[in-house]
Design brief:
about 270 residues, Transferase(Phosphotransferase), domain 1, about 40% helix
């Protein structure tokens, strides 16, 4: 299939389809080596008004170095009849997403949970350094690579004006977003707290919007005192909630980064 990119791709299957979004598993020889590999092609319906702004945002995201944020290999505009699509080529993660891991039998051990959590902290830090706020961080758009490292794959952080959101995903939103109030990077820290709770307990902390607004969740399921402490700092109202910088400076996080040898180029450069 020919397109506006400098290469051709073959669609293997449709992964997701929505009103403004189509996601495909594709096969292409991106580096022109004669060897085709699997990638994911994300196609977002756009218009002339938001085209330039979106392209500039993707250029910025493509230049990011963080190993815990999805790598964008290419993006281009594709026209079909009267419709226009912004196409983004990213890695394909055969192991699936964090939601799939959580749904499997058995609880994860604490060390693996810490590894996932720290990698998410470093990935969020990189996004925030580059002035991106996810507002949509959840287990469905966090992927696992072959080494079981997590990858934040939320392209909706750029395309939030056309991204559709299911009710179940709203349950990861902070109280201020749900209330339609002003929000900042701390909203992503709330979502991070929801994800931490879920990978520990295999249950969402909130199943009703009203419980989010009251911050009413079952704390008795958390047996580890360090996890309990972090959740109290993340699942709290905005003024009391930790920022990403405060979280990185926390003694517990610092120790875990060193223990697991989890560093990131962007965080080192930002110091």
């Amino acid at each position: 299939m020919k397109n506006n990119a400098d290469y051709s791709y073959e669609i293997i299957k449709n992964i997701e389809a929505g009103k403004n979004i189509e996601i495909f598993l594709v096969l292409c020889d991106l580096n022109k080596t004669g060897e085709k590999k699997n990638y994911v092609l994300n196609k977002f319906k756009i218009n002339d008004i938001n085209e330039i702004g979106l392209i500039n945002k993707f250029k910025k995201m493509k230049s990011m170095k963080c190993r815990y944020v999805i790598k964008i290999y290419d993006f281009f505009i594709e026209k079909k009849d009267t419709k226009k699509y912004l196409c983004i080529l990213t890695d394909y993660y055969e192991k699936g997403n964090l939601s799939k891991l959580i749904s499997q039998k058995g609880f994860l051990n604490d060390r693996f949970i810490w590894r996932i959590f720290i990698q998410l902290v470093l990935g969020l830090n990189s996004l925030h350094i580059n002035n991106f706020i996810s507002k949509n961080l959840n287990p469905q758009n966090i992927y696992l690579n072959d080494e079981n490292n997590v990858i934040i794959g939320d392209l909706g952080l750029i395309l939030d004006d056309i991204k559709e959101k299911e009710y179940s995903l709203l349950l990861y939103n902070s109280p201020e977003i749900i209330n339609g109030q002003n929000y900042n990077e701390k909203s992503d820290l709330w979502s991070l707290g929801c994800i931490l709770y879920e990978i520990i307990t295999k249950k969402k902390p909130f199943y009703l919007i009203e419980n989010i607004l009251k911050i009413n969740y079952n704390k008795n399921l958390i047996m580890n005192s360090d996890f309990e402490y972090l959740l109290s700092k993340l699942l709290s109202f905005e003024k009391r909630r930790l920022s990403i910088n405060q979280l990185l400076k926390d003694r517990i996080i610092g120790v875990k980064i060193i223990e697991e040898n989890l560093f990131d180029d962007e965080i080192i450069e930002s110091k």
